[in-house]
Amino acid sequence: MAERLHNIPLLFLVLAAAVYGTDLPRPLFKSPLRAQDTEPAPGAAVRLQDSDPGLKRVLQFAEDRYNRGSNAMHLRRVSRLISASKQVVKGIRYSVTVELSNTQCKKSAMLRSCDFDPEPHRLKTEVCLFEVWDIPWESSSTLLKQKCEPKVDPEIEETNRILDSTEQVEEVESMKLLGQFKEFMVKYNKDYSTQEEVDRRLKIFHGNLKTAEKLQSLDQGSAEYGVTKFSDLTVEEFRSLYLNPMLSQWTQHRQMKMAPPAAQPAPDSWDWREHGAVSPVKNQGACGSCWAFSVIGNIEGQWFLKNGSLIALSEQELVDCDGLDKACRGGLPSNAYEAIEKLGGLETENDYSYTGHKQKCDFTSLKVAAYINSSVEIEKDEKEIAAYLAEHGPVSVALNAFAMQFYRRGVSHPLKIFCNPWMIDHAVLMVGYGNRNSVPFWAIKNSWGEDYGEKGYYYLYRGSNACGINKMASSASFVTSKIWFRQVGEIDLNLLSDNVTGYKAQTCGQRGSGRLRNADRESTNCKGHWKSRQ
Ligand SMILES: *[C@@H]1O[C@H](CO)[C@@H](O)[C@H](O)[C@H]1NC(C)=O
Ligand SMILES: *[C@@H]1O[C@H](CO)[C@@H](O)[C@H](O)[C@H]1NC(C)=O
Ligand SMILES: *[C@@H]1O[C@H](CO)[C@@H](O)[C@H](O)[C@H]1NC(C)=O
């Protein structure tokens, strides 16, 4: 990437001069794509010099049309001319292949004065073929064809540098697609029973890559979308196998008690993985049991903070024994907490291990390793959720997971049209938050295995209620009292702690206010505290 990018200033100069400046007597650099000095047959397509006067106008026209038709936030400009040819057909038919990249200007700005985005990863360079039919004597230009794809890897590009006909573009595209599909099949161990199935999956794979491209070009964060282990599933299949239809009725869910407001504002960042409250990433398999994983993750954290030991607890117990929910066909965290209270606790993952399908309930109270007494709902406000999380441990949340099927890494910030905040369909565990290159994020533990996203985690933009992340935050607690104490000033939480938060906050051995102060958190003296309380 970097190696190719350093060409841009030079190319940009050439193009800027060619498009907007005076004619150049000769190209500034020797183009490997320049026409040979042989005389072309009449009517045949001829390769063009960079300084061809018609080419400038055509590039400008193509750029304008491209920007008018794209949904991208920023203006995009030609960053490199790959090849160009023209053919005389009742006017001139131009065929140009160029690279277009993001400028720093929003769409409303003037195209002429926009520099390219200095951040290579934000250039989002595309290779585009434009065919323009120009009739100079009628001052008319028509865009016959526009075909764009994200710029491919340098190795692949080197061998296919000269793309000057549609067929070649298409051939390269389908070869590239096949290569990606094969790689996908090997990486994720895919095995299709018939040739028809292979063809069908390839078609779906192709469609999904297009969706991923769209998400990519419109993402407002730093996420990378593309091939994932779900790339051969239609959106509907993905939904029914991995998501949770019951969550769409979240507005009707059982009313839970509201959590007391956090005692202190949220620190700038917090990550419970650094404090031992988060078990390794699990895998729900092709079963819509995310609700169980989300709630169990929360209780593992709560139990860790109460008891001092991190124990992997059983999701299968909920799949089998929680009659309020629908096992692999979805569930609601609010129901799950209630079911756990009624059952009398949870067995460990070891004692009651995950199978990914509903079985007869095999729970025994003799093996209970953790319990809860109640649950609370957290205010639908991201700042409040952050403060609650920092104070009380990982939080069960739900969101619209459309973009997650295509997510690979980075901070995902899909446009609302891809991520309707009212259509919640997946429950996960929020374990921390912070800023990555000044993009605020939530760190979200998912239950699709470690080979999903960033080692099993999904990072979502924080601060715009993206994908409805604020809609359904909840936590188990160990408090049964119906009366919540709102902390005012310097109340001695020693007397209230069990009633207020479920765990007695202590700072390095001393009992103190409801949450560790930042200074205490950062002090190395306090590190051991989280693991060995009392
Ligand atoms: C933690 O829980 C275990 C049982 O799971 C119990 O034996 C132990 O005493 C508890 N420790 C604390 C500090 O509560
Ligand atoms: C919480 O639940 C456990 C297990 O059901 C129970 O033994 C305990 O007494 C309860 N605690 C309170 C404060 O109600
Ligand atoms: C909870 O609060 C009540 C009222 O202040 C108090 O009497 C009780 O001892 C508290 N319970 C615990 C477990 O601290």
What would your notes on this structure say?
By secondary structure, this protein is of the alpha+beta class. It contains 13 helices and 18 strands. Strands 8, 10, 12, 13, 14 and 15 form a 6-stranded mixed sheet that branches. Strands 1-2-3-4-5 form a 5-stranded antiparallel sheet. Strand 2 and strand 3 form a beta hairpin. Helix 2 crosses helix 3. The structure holds 2-acetamido-2-deoxy-beta-D-glucopyranose (3 copies). One 2-acetamido-2-deoxy-beta-D-glucopyranose binds next to loops. Thiol protease which is believed to participate in intracellular degradation and turnover of proteins. Has also been implicated in tumor invasion and metastasis. It catalyses: The recombinant enzyme cleaves synthetic substrates with Phe and Leu (better than Val) in P2, with high specificity constant (kcat/Km) comparable to that of cathepsin L.
Number of helices: 13
DSSP strand tally: 18
SSE class: alpha+beta
The shape, in one word, is elongated
Could you state the oligomeric state of the chains shown? single chain
Biggest sheet overview: 6 strands, mixed
Distance between the termini: 54 Å
Poorly predicted regions are: 1-38, 155-163, 481-534
Helix content: 25-40%
Bound molecules: 2-acetamido-2-deoxy-beta-D-glucopyranose
- Overall average residue pLDDT: 79
The proportion of strand residues reads: 15-25%
Radius of gyration equals 29 Å
Key words describing this protein structure:
534 residues, alpha+beta, 6-stranded mixed sheet, 5-stranded antiparallel sheet, 18 strands, binds 2-acetamido-2-deoxy-beta-D-glucopyranose, Cystatin_sf, Cathepsin F, lysosome, thiol protease, disulfide bond
